[in-house]
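Quick bug: D-alanyl-D-alanine carboxypeptidase output formatted oddly.
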Amino acid sequence: MLRRFALATFLAAVLGSAHAQLPAPVAQMLAQQGLPEDSLGVLVLKGDNVVLSHQADRPMQPASTMKLVTTMVSLERLGPAFRGRTELRTTGEIQKDALRGNLILKGGADADLSGADLENMLRALHYQGIRRIEGDLVLDRSLWQPARADVGLPPFDESPEAYYNLIPDALLVNKNMIQIDMRSTNKRLKLEMQPQLDRVSIGSAMTLIDADCSTWEDGWKLPEAVRQKDGRIKVILHGTFPKDCARSYSINVLDRNDYIERLFRQKWKELGGKFSGKAVEGTAPPGSTLLAEHTSRMLPELVRDTNKPSDNALARTLFLSLGSLQPDPAAGSFALPATGEPTSARADAAVREWMRGQRIDDTGLVMENGSGLSRLERVTPQQMAYLLQAGLRSNWAPEFQSSMPIAGIDGTLRRRLQGTPAAGRARLKTGTLRNVVALAGYVPDADGVQNVFVAIVNSEQAGNGRGRAVLDALVDWVARSGMPSAPAPVQAPVLP
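Here's what came back:
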């Protein structure tokens, strides 16, 4: 016990002092941007050697760099062949052209399920001779608990209708989004919406104004979905919109039960089918019959689409899948045994179990949803750096690295670090909140040697490009230098 305590104390001292002096360009940029040195946490590693450490053991808000934790552990635990799956099932029987019984739409964390996919599944019923459904449409979201984490949750910010704020559940079609096409003349605003939903229309309470089309979002107000007495729903847009302007925008304003039911009715009607029931929430009973299914793309594609554009909904879907699903080589995935424990708690436990298996101390780690869109999530630069080291050793290292934005080329880094030695070479996940700017990933130095790079700024003054300028200066410093390693190797902390 004393030996372990001494080792932990030694490691803490090394990480706190080794190369604690910030490089001159970085220190100067901090001062220039009005940011204190204690707002920055950094750990740069070359192999197992420390290149630069500054407050590396401090738990910090990571913003979207937390997606690296979620995607790395997902690849390791679920495997590259993992897929989410949606099923159409029934306990009824097909008699002549009728399904006599409920039709069950069972969600399985299928992040790709679109309206076209739902139509293809319904077409499969059509091919089986079904023209009438004499029962209800049962929506099964029971894979995750609670089944509707979005209900009653206060909005994260002032834009709850925006896609980046979408809270997923195990059964989402089109991610519950409506795409709106807005085209104005000098006197009139024309609106179109996709997909078409049964008895759902769109209208405007917007005022046309003289303004630059590029500033249209300045006048945007929260839209609403108004239920009419006859059961119809009207989506109403509010605010102002420039004259002679054309823009498209996707919004999440319909209750997701309404969305699925009305999309189902629209698609089934277009196929010539009849449905006399209603949509209800429930679960697929044991022994129900599979009628049709859809599977998502394989996990590496989802990981790439999570990290390159920094997709919160995909990250949250993968995080909850860690608490609910396991790989199944034959079918893509299978559900873990049900318990009363929230799925997010099981996902958190799965992440910690993996980290401890990599001998990474998880003390101070806080995971709320796995996307970084959180005021609560915390990670130390040290934990993130050791996770990135494990990523280099992983069987799925190519898939993990290829998911990260490339400096100056694509994703959320396409406009950053252009014209620097890091451009086209560094692969880094970005993270941005009102008070957070972060970068984490891999930066080759001037000798072409890969460096694990983690840098986080937590400060109320981090916005308006201030924190970004500091981190870009730090990336540039690493990319330009062929720095000698620290004299003594530092391994990940050994857990008791």
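Actually, after a second look the formatting is fine. The radius of gyration is 25 Å. Closing.
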